[in-house]
Amino acid sequence: MNDALALEVKNLSVDFHTDGGVVHAVKGADISVREGAILGLVGESGSGKSVTSLAVLRLLGTPRAKITGGEILFRGENLLDKTEKEMCAIRGPHIGMVSQNALSALDPSFTIGAQLVEVIRLHQGVDKATARVKALEALDLVALPESKRRMKAYPHELSGGQRQRVVIAIALSCRPELLLADEPTTALDATVQKQILDLLLDINAELGTSILLVTHDFGVVAHVCTDVTVMRRGDVLESGTVERVLTQPQHPYTQGLMRAVPHLRLDEATRAVPRADRRLFEFRTEEKEAVDVA
Ligand code: ADP
Ligand code: MG
């Protein structure tokens, strides 16, 4: 990892024009993802995390949403200056997206193999046979058991965790430099949640993919992230390495959160090992002590 940035969001503001007036969802946010890093974008519900990550892809999905200022720098260019056609060439090949609900991200009427092959052919312009080989590779990358047989499965025939692996496989099939993952494990039970988080760690270590991980859970941040940015009500309150923010939080809000969850402070043993090996340690958000700032 180095200090070059995979993504730099500068002074981003996003408004929603609702019948009840203008909602300032993101208010001048600065967010940096270092190359090869896993940045946790953390905050309670409604703090603007999802809106920020959707703004990066210019997928706010309603004409009522307006990006009113700022820059989103990716590969040396401001994504806010891009045409929709140019954005289509960035979404997928350069920036992948994994959302919370794998079921809604997959089409129920096609096999997962067909969906993977379609995405690979669309973005990589390869023939069907080559796309099938690449699809199988993608499923093996995310450690989907019996990948060859599973190519013929429909989404409903897979478990929630397996479906999320498929969604991650689709996002990674074009080897994007940056992966945006919005609460990718929130819908899963604790054991499966850990498996998917460990998969993200493996992908980061093996492919060097930079990851922006949206979560409301400091336990998730402690387990997988190198860096963290804390948001609240549209504002960025604090950013830094996970070690620094968890052990020496600067903002009173973060300090309050850390006081409330002292077991989340990185202990000496955990700090001494490379982050990719933290899976050897017990995952510290067991359900009974889940830290949920939402
Ligand atoms: P979270 O941090 O939970 O992901 P969001 O980014 O989804 O929060 O939302 C931030 C705020 O943006 C919400 O509290 C809400 O006020 C506003 N917002 C989000 N989506 C919409 C929408 N479609 N219409 C109006 N306001 C919205
Ligand atoms: Mg959200």
TrEMBL record:
Q: Does the keyword Cytoplasm apply?
A: no
Record key words, sorted? ATP-binding, Cell inner membrane, Cell membrane, Membrane, Nucleotide-binding, Translocase, Transport
Name one molecular function that GO assigns to this entry. ATP hydrolysis activity
One Gene Ontology term from the biological process aspect of the record: peptide transport
**Alphabetized InterPro entries for the sequence:** AAA+_ATPase, ABC_Ni/Peptide_Import, ABC_transporter-like_ATP-bd, ABC_transporter-like_CS, Oligopep_ABC_C, P-loop_NTPase
- One Pfam family this sequence matches: oligo_HPY
Compartment list: Cell membrane
CDD domains in the record, alphabetically?
Answer: ABC_NikE_OppD_transporters
Main location, first listed in the record: membrane
Membrane topology classification: Peripheral membrane protein
Which Gene Ontology terms of cellular component type are present?
plasma membrane
Lineage top rank: taxon: Bacteria
Taking every annotated instance into account, which residue ranges of this chain make up the domain ABC transporter? 7-258
What the record says about family reads: Belongs to the ABC transporter superfamily.
Kindly provide the name given to this protein in its UniProt entry: ABC transporter ATP-binding protein
